[in-house]
Amino acid sequence: MILSSKKYGLKTIAVLRSIRGVGALLLATTLLYASFYKEESLEINTSLISENRFFEQIIHWFPQLTQEHFFAFAIIALLMSITRFVEAFGLWFEKNWGNYLTITTGLITSIILFLQLMNEFLWIVLFFLLINLLIACYLLIIVKMNKVFKRQKV
User: Fold this and answer.
1) CA-to-CA distance for 6 and 24, rounded, in angstroms?
2) Which of 33, 88, 125, 132 is deepest in the core (most CB within 10 A)?
3) Residues 88, 14: contact at Cβ < 8 Å?
């Protein structure tokens, strides 16, 4: 019973990581497109953006960004996408390194979200912080269970 629920839990997290990987890949593609066509008219529809300081800062920085900035951000997003797909692969096939990689990236993301939360409280940031911590705790339990299971098997 526990082993089957562990399997479904890992597969669910793997699917979520894959979805995030696709999102990062789309972001990388968009940023790469922007890096090549920045000189042309890339206008931002500010009516679609809510009154949020984060988006206001991006709109303020947008004219100062160069093609190289967009290209660098695209490379970072591509690396994030690859990392998410590797995590998903490791979790799907129940590899121990997949658990460790997901825990590590989840905790790094949690630190970034926590700092953002300290800067400005947003419910959505708190939601994602709690989800990241929940996944990291779940995977830590799985790692601990795997170690106990291996000891009992020997």
Assistant:
1) 27
2) 88
3) yes
**Which residue, chain included where needed, has tokens 């597969």?**
11
Distance (Å, whole) CA 137 – CA 122: 23
Alpha carbon distance 19, 102 (integer Å): 14
Give me the amino acid identity at 125. Answer: V
Q: Return d(Cα 109, Cα 113) in angstroms, integer.
A: 6
Report how far residue 90's alpha carbon sits from residue 98's, in angstroms, rounded to the nearest whole number.
4
> Per residue in 131-141, pLDDT tens?
999 999 999 99
Q: What is this structure's pTM? A: 0.79
Phi-psi region of 43 (alpha: psi -120 to 50; beta: other; left: phi over 0): beta
User: CA 146, CA 152: separation in Å to the nearest integer?
Assistant: 10
Put residue 94 in one of left, alpha, beta given phi > 0 → left and psi -120 to 50 → alpha. Answer: left
